[in-house]
Write a structure and sequence with these properties.
Belongs to the LysR transcriptional regulatory family. By secondary structure, the chain is of the alpha/beta class. It has twelve helices and twelve strands. About 45% of the residues lie in helices and about 15% in strands.
C-alpha cells in the first residue's frame, strides 16, 4: 500500500465520487454515467485507485461488481469525505452570507433536557445556523469527536482510556431514579430499599457503562447479589417502551431524563434512595481544536442554562 503522503498527493475527488457510484450502481457503465465519465475513463480511474491503495476494492462477477471488504471500508470513508466537503461548502457559504454556519453536537440521554434548552436559545439567537444533534453513549460520542464528526459533546470523558486528549468542563451531577410501570405492585409502597428489589427483573445499562457500574456498586455495598438475567440496553427510549409493556420490571435512569415520562404518567418513580450519584457529565471538546463561532455560541448557552457562565468563559479562553 502507498504511504499516506502518496495517497494524499494522488487521490482526487473524482476517485471518491466514482467509488461511491460503483458501490451504489454495481456496474462500471451506470457508475460512469452518474459521475459524467466515459466507461473507459471510469475503468481507468478504478484501476488507478486500486493500484494506489494496493488492494482490490471490487470483485468482477458475471452479475457486475461486488464490493469487497476493503472496498466497503474505502466507500465508507469516501462518503465521509464527501459529506465533510458538503458541510464545508455549506458553512463557508453561510458565513459569506452573514449567517451562522454549522454546528454538530453530541449528547448522552441524561443531558437532553439541559441541552435542549441551550439549543433552543442558540436557534433563537442565530436562526440561520444549521444544527446536527447526535444522541449516543459517551464512548461513541468521544469516538465521533476524535474523528472530527462533532464540534462538542456533552458526555463523560473519563470513559475513554485517554481522557487527556480532551478539554472538559463539569456541567451537571446526575441524580438517579428507579422507574417502573405505573401499575407495578411496587408503586403501593411508601418507601423501598434495594433489598425489596432483589428479586425484581431489571432493565440496566450494558456492562462497564457508568450507570451500570454505579448500580453494581449500590448492590455490592448493600451486600445484595446483582440481579440475574437483566435486559441490557443503552437506550432510554427502549427502557421506557419496555416498561410500558412490562408491569413487573424496573429500570435505572437519571432523574432529568425520566422526568418528562414521569410527568406524563408513562412511568412511575419508585420511592427508593440511592446513595451514589453518577459522575458529572461534561462539556467536552478535542484538545487543541479550533472552535467555530457557532460552537462558542453553543458553549456559552450551555453555560448559561447550567449557571456556569464565568467558568465557560475561562474555559474558552484556555483553548
Amino acid at each position: 500500500m502507498s504511504t499516506l503522503t502518496s495517497i494524499i498527493s494522488r487521490l482526487r475527488m473524482r476517485h471518491l465520487r466514482l467509488l461511491i457510484a460503483l458501490h451504489e450502481h454495481g456496474t462500471v457503465q451506470k457508475a460512469a454515467e452518474s459521475v459524467a465519465l466515459t466507461q473507459p475513463g471510469a475503468t481507468k480511474a478504478l484501476n488507478e485507485i486500486e493500484a494506489m491503495l494496493g488492494v482490490q476494492l471490487f470483485q468482477r462477477t458475471h452479475k457486475g461488481l461486488e464490493t469487497t471488504d476493503m472496498g466497503l471500508c474505502a466507500v465508507r470513508y469516501a462518503r465521509l469525505i464527501n459529506t465533510d466537503l458538503a458541510h464545508f461548502h455549506e458553512e463557508l457559504e453561510s458565513m459569506q452570507q452573514g449567517r451562522g454556519g454549522r454546528l454538530a453536537v453530541g449528547l448522552i440521554m441524561g443531558a437532553v433536557p439541559l441541552i435542549s434548552a441551550a439549543l433552543s436559545r442558540v436557534r433563537s439567537l442565530q436562526p440561520a445556523i444549521s444544527i446536527e444533534v447526535v444522541e449516543d453513549t459517551s464512548a461513541r460520542l468521544l469516538n465521533l469527536l476524535d474523528r472530527g464528526r462533532l464540534d462538542a459533546a456533552i458526555c463523560r470523558s473519563r470513559v475513554n482510556q485517554r481522557p487527556h486528549l480532551y478539554t472538559s468542563l463539569d456541567i451537571h451531577e446526575e441524580e438517579l431514579a428507579v422507574i417502573c410501570h405505573p401499575d407495578n405492585p411496587l408503586t403501593r409502597h411508601s418507601a423501598l430499599t434495594l433489598a425489596d428489589l432483589s428479586d425484581t427483573s431489571w432493565i440496566v445499562y450494558p456492562a462497564n457503562m457508568p450507570m451500570r457500574l454505579l448500580l453494581e456498586r449500590e448492590f455490592h455495598e448493600a451486600k445484595i447479589p446483582f440481579p440475574l438475567y437483566p435486559i441490557e440496553t443503552a437506550s432510554a427510549f427502549t427502557s421506557i417502551s419496555m416498561l410500558g409493556h412490562d408491569r413487573e420490571s424496573v429500570a435505572l435512569m437519571s432523574v432529568d431524563a425520566s422526568k418528562p415520562f414521569v410527568d406524563a404518567g408513562m412511568v412511575y418513580r419508585l420511592p427508593i434512595q440511592l446513595h451514589s450519584r453518577s459522575e458529572p457529565y461534561e462539556l467536552v471538546t478535542r484538545k487543541g481544536a479550533s472552535l467555530s463561532p457557532a460552537t462558542q455560541l453553543f458553549m456559552r448557552e450551555v453555560a448559561l442554562v447550567g449557571n456556569l457562565h464565568a467558568d465557560v468563559e475561562a474555559y474558552i479562553e484556555s483553548l
